[in-house]
Amino acid sequence: MLTQGLAMAFTDDNGGFAFSCDDAKLSIAASTWNTRLSQLARVQGPLRVMTRLLPNLDYIGRIVSKRPHNIYILASTEAEVDARSLKAQFPSIRIALHPNLNAKAVLVGPDTVWISSADFGESKKIESAVGLHSETVFNKALSSLFNPAWATAREI
What we know:
Elements: E1 24-28, H1 33-36, E2 47-51, H2 57-64, E3 71-76, H3 80-89, E4 94-98, E5 105-108, E6 112-116, E7 128-133, H4 135-151, E8 154-155
Parallel strand pairs: 2-3, 3-4
Antiparallel strand pairs: 1-7, 2-5, 4-8, 5-6, 6-7
């Protein structure tokens, strides 16, 4: 049990990496992926999505149609039917499937990372997310989380 005045210190280890961030937001129940990515058309960097499922393809289509290029979606093999449908609608989007993926993260280059309880799409549940603006966190999440999973996934 922690006593007043003491704090846990995070360190890099095989379970993750420590970081500090001056600009962060906790999104609770009121924000959606569409809201979080409302400026997607103005962002030049790649959009990288990690999601188990792809709930509501019409909703997802409205998001990615803002800028239907330079987008990478990594989903669970459970989402294959929806992933193939999304790929048919937006052929320039790269989509890969991974058998063990459950992460819900969105990386917007060059410096934004969203970690969420919600899959990428529309949710009818109470969800939460943490958004971070940090080039360091973005680069570490890209190299430690997204890239290794993408490398072991099957692109469609």
